[in-house]
Structures are given as structure tokens and as C-alpha cells.
């Protein structure tokens, strides 16, 4: 199959299982503390909704397996989440997935993947450097939005072993653990998962605005730069009452997550 034929391609069905250990581990990776018992104790557990972004990763692998591009040279650059129903603490979740669109950006291509279940809808944006120029549509233009003007921020220090722990939630790509693989991809050492950075970011956003992190209803962000375990992240927010929270994440003055929006129960998109 060739890249220009991928749009609309079904990626099939998958049932993904997880238990309370995964739910708790994910919350700990995001930053949950011992006094948040409903995030870390199985007797009253409320999963963080962003756990869904990890559950749908099988679709990214399935798209790469179609053979239209080298998935080792693909980059996960954007993530979307819409919650339809709260996640159970442990479950077997049936999902379907397809390639929603393929855009020709000239020097690169963009592949948009959609994953759907009765609990959530997910969107993964995959960037393919050097794969454009095949004569396809360029896709929608980015609409003008008001400049992001943060009104608050919080500092989060990631731990040196965070990538090692987050791997156990499901994403075991060697770039997050093996120095040789990291070096072959141009990194000085193994990097943190983008979805882990997103989990840390949205958890911090909830705390910054006084929302419960398990009350997340929607989320979107773009991945802008890698994070190394141990780095300090600055999560900046701009919240207008009754509206989705805008946020970004920087480290050392470099943006690592951009164009973030998050809604919680009581806010709107």
C-alpha cells in the first residue's frame, strides 16, 4: 500500500485490557501523591482520563505495519482526546480505528489516525519527514487564535526513572530505555514519552485551576520537543471561567508541548 491510498483505511478492531495496577501506575507517572487516595488506592479508584491515550497506541503500530512508510522515522506530533464516559478502574475496552486523513505538506506528510470506543475518541497526528510531494491535498489551514498569554504556572521536576516506569503502562519503544537506540535517533540519551509529558502536564493543569484531574473531559496538544527524564517542566496555564483551559509546557525556555487545551467537568470546549 502507498501513502496516498491510506486515507479511510481501516485499522481494524482491538480489545485492550488493563487492571488497577496500570491505572495506579499511570496516575503515579502523572504526579499523583499519597494523599490522593482516589487516584492511587484500588478501593476507591478513579482513573485519569488521559490513560486512554496510552490504550489506543495499538492503532499507531497498526498504521505503521501497513508498509506505506517507515514507522521508525515517523513522529507523534499531536494528540486529541474526547471522553464519552468515565473509564472504569479495570476493563477490557473494545476499540476500532482507521486512518482519517493523509495530508501532503510538500516536504513532509501528515497522517491523522482516529480511535473510537464507547468510552472515548482519540486522534493521533503522525508526522512523516521527507514523505510529502505525492500530489495529495494539503489539509486544513491552522485558524488564527488569540496569542497565548499565561496567567499562572507551576514547576514540575520529572524523575530520572520516569520513562522506565511509564514504559510499563504499555509503550515499550526502545528509544525510552536504550542509549544506543536513542543515539541512532539523534538523542544524547533516552527520552521521555511524549504522552507521559502530556500526562504530567494535564495533571498539573488540573491542580493549577482547582479541578480534579479525573474530571477531564477533553484534551488536545502538539508535541514540540523531546524531554529527558529528570528535567524540570514549567506548565503554564491561561484559564477563562467557563472555557477550556489553554496551556503549554516548557523546559529550559524551550516549548515541549504547544497549543494545549483541556476541559474539565464545569468547563466547556
Apparent shape: globular
Strands, count: 10
Please indicate the count of domains: 2
Classify the fold: give the CATH topology of the largest domain.
Thiol Ester Dehydrase, Chain A
- The CATH C-level name of the largest domain is Alpha Beta
- SS summary, helix count: 7
Radius of gyration computed on alpha carbons: 18 Å
Biggest sheet descriptor: 10 strands, antiparallel
GO biological process, one term: fatty acid beta-oxidation
GO molecular function, one term: 17-beta-hydroxysteroid dehydrogenase (NAD+) activity
Pfam family, one: MFE-2_hydrat-2_N
Domain MaoC-like: 156-249
Can you walk me through this structure?
The protein has two domains: 3-129, Hotdog Thioesterase (Thiol Ester Dehydrase, Chain A, Roll), CATH 3.10.129; 152-264, Hotdog Thioesterase (Thiol Ester Dehydrase, Chain A), CATH 3.10.129.10. A hairpin with a 2-residue loop joins strand 9 and strand 10. It starts with 9 loop residues before the first strand and ends in a 5-residue tail after the last strand. The protein is built from seven helices and ten strands. The protein has helices spanning 20-30, 37-40, 52-55, 58-64, 162-166, 179-184, 194-209, and strands at residues 10-18, 75-83, 91-104, 108-116, 120-129, 152-157, 216-223, 232-238, 245-251, 254-264.
Amino acid at each position: 500500500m502507498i501513502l496516498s491510498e491510506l486515507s479511510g483505511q481501516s485499522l481494524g478492531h482491538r480489545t485492550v485490557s488493563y487492571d488497577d495496577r496500570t491505572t495506579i501506575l499511570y496516575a503515579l507517572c502523572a504526579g499523583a501523591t499519597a494523599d490522593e487516595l482516589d487516584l492511587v488506592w484500588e478501593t476507591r479508584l478513579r482513573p485519569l482520563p488521559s490513560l486512554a491515550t496510552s490504550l489506543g497506541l495499538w492503532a499507531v503500530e497498526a498504521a505503521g505495519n501497513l508498509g506505506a512508510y517507515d514507522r521508525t522515522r515517523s513522529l507523534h506530533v499531536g494528540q486529541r482526546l474526547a471522553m464519552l464516559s468515565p473509564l472504569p478502574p479495570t476493563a477490557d475496552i473494545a476499540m476500532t480505528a482507521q486512518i482519517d486523513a493523509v495530508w501532503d505538506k510538500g516536504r513532509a506528510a501528515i497522517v491523522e489516525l482516529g480511535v473510537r470506543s464507547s468510552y472515548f475518541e482519540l486522534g493521533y497526528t503522525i508526522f512523516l519527514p521527507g514523505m510529502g510531494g505525492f500530489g495529495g491535498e494539503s489539509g486544513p489551514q491552522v485558524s488564527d487564535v488569540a496569542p497565548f498569554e499565561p496567567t499562572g504556572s507551576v514547576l514540575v521536576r520529572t524523575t530520572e526513572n520516569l520513562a522506565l516506569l511509564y514504559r510499563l503502562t504499555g509503550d515499550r519503544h526502545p528509544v525510552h530505555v536504550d542509549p544506543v537506540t536513542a543515539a541512532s535517533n539523534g538523542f544524547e540519551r533516552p527520552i521521555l514519552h511524549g504522552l507521559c509529558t502530556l500526562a504530567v502536564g494535564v495533571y498539573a493543569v488540573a491542580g493549577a485551576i482547582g479541578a480534579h484531574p479525573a474530571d477531564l473531559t477533553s484534551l488536545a496538544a502538539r508535541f514540540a520537543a523531546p524531554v529527558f527524564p529528570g528535567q524540570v517542566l514549567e506548565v503554564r496555564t491561561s484559564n477563562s471561567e467557563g472555557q477550556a483551559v489553554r496551556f503549554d509546557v516548557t523546559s529550559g525556555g524551550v516549548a515541549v508541548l504547544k497549543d494545549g487545551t483541556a476541559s474539565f467537568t464545569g468547563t466547556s470546549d
